[in-house]
Design a protein that fits this description.
about 260 residues; alpha/beta; Helix Hairpins; 2 domains; seven-stranded parallel sheet; transmembrane helix; NAD(P)-bd_dom_sf; transmembrane; membrane
Amino acid sequence: MYRIEEPRLGGLRIKEWRRRAHLAVGLLFLVLLGSTLGIGLLDHSDAPLTTKMFTAFWDAVNLVTTLGDFSDFNSDQKVFMLVAILATMVVAGYALRQLTGMLSGDDVMVFWENRAMEHKLETLSNHVAVCPFGLVGQLVAARLRDAGVTVLVLEADVKRAEKASGLGYMVILGDQNSFDDVLERARLDTASALFVTGDDPNSNLEITLVAHTLNSGLQIVVSGENDLRRMLLQRAGASTVIDQNDIVAHAMVGQINARRAQQT
């Protein structure tokens, strides 16, 4: 699910985690550098300086990575290594305490979910958008998916958006104040059709107008309850306006006519 109003805390947590990770890596690098210099300077052997420093670097890497494959130390180096081991333990403990758990919050999960949905939306094409995911919208979406069509649900209600996401649909969630952004994110420029199935005639009209503005060639199927509303929707850009009440009435009368035909 893509949320238009993405919780800012998720992005802030990611930035803070990166800052702390950089700090932890920097501290470990300082420990590595300090250990290399300390071990090398305390090496009283007659070996060349390059050999001493390489051996010191080897021991420092083993210290930081806790591999433990050290060379032989003199007494001064052993004392220094005790200090270096304590420093490494302190830095490692600090890093674990600072980084653990920061990326497991719900707001962070939403942040990564939005990033994943952004990549999907960038390549989305020839799909059908259904708005909203009410009773009619659910039936429309189900039949479209059964026909092999890629369905994108546009919703302003959190519970219905979560229901659609749980059923496996791609979903864009945004409140009424940001629904223009929802339509822009829906890639209507590459969509094949939009089904507007809401109960609010004013909302249906607004969605139709914005969608037609974003893509004048988009096929827009919308429900309208009377001739005046049909005219307004068609002027707003609707390709097909369906009166649900008229369809129900026609179906009911059709059942009676069918029974009369059978009796005669």
